[in-house]
Known about the structure:
Layout: H1 27-45, E1 63-68, E2 77-84, E3 93-96, E4 114-123, E5 127-128, E6 134-135, E7 138-145, H2 149-161, E8 169-174, E9 187-188, E10 197-199, H3 202-209, E11 214-215, E12 222-224, H4 235-238, H5 244-251, H6 267-292
Antiparallel strand pairs: 1-4, 1-8, 2-3, 2-4, 4-7, 5-6, 8-9, 8-10, 11-12
The structure holds zinc ion.
Amino acid sequence: MSYINKPTTQPTTRPASQNGGWGHRGSQITTTANAVIERNSNAQSGSRSEFVPLRFYVKAGTSVDLVILDTSMEAGFAFYEHNLIDQDGRYSIFEPCLKDLGVTCPMCVQGNSSYVLFLTCIALKPYTSKKGVVIPHSKMLLPIRITQFDVIRQLEESAKNEGKSLRGMVLSMKRSKTDSKAPRIGEPAIGKGGRVYEIIDEDEIISLFGHDPVTSQDGNIVYKTENEDTRPYDYEKIFPRPDVTAILQRHGKGGDIKIEEEEVASPATEEKASRVLEMLLQKRKAASKEAYTPAPIDDEEIPF
Ligand SMILES: [Zn+2]
């Protein structure tokens, strides 16, 4: 399997030309101009050219609600990844495994990489920005490890059976306080009504999370297009082909890095996944019963 699961070259949208295809026409001019401006502004500020989104994370013993923006698991982006320990002893460093890039991966000597699927979500967790503004929710990457694939797949199946998709699925992700092996993104918790998820429709997604374009003051740089936060990340843009040389320079020596062992799907995880499905099925059965069985009429409750 290759690291990039989709073609890396974008199809050219150049209009038909009669001059041998030299120069730019149409929207390509604006696209190129924006890219040049962005590149220049990055070069001036000395910042990294790639934008790395934050990863969804739940503090142990708490829960955070999220809304998935991708339509399916297969719409996401997946690769093998190493999770390394930083100077403070926290597993906060993430590096792609080099084994799919035709290189002997120096990090694999220390421990296996994990196969991780990235979806995009909106974390419904307010935070206060540096300027003191309360931001009620934020778009983030949702890193799903292979041990949780079954649960997400079953939720996707369940949504499909309702004629819907993963997009708009609201989950309450709860992380165990005591289980140190519990996934950092938490696990879908059963809600008050016994349901694991709700699905909000497209109009609700736009009305809740839609926004105007975000540009620089002079309008020359478009940071965000209209309603960009309601769409999944452009994965090929945020996950460019890794710079093998740079990674080898950072981690090529070996011996000075600790690596978390790969999580393997255990029977306990599978059991948990099937329990979630069972609850969903029971809930659906109960819901359909409600829909087709008239409730017994209690005379006293009739208000007239
Ligand atoms: Zn590796």
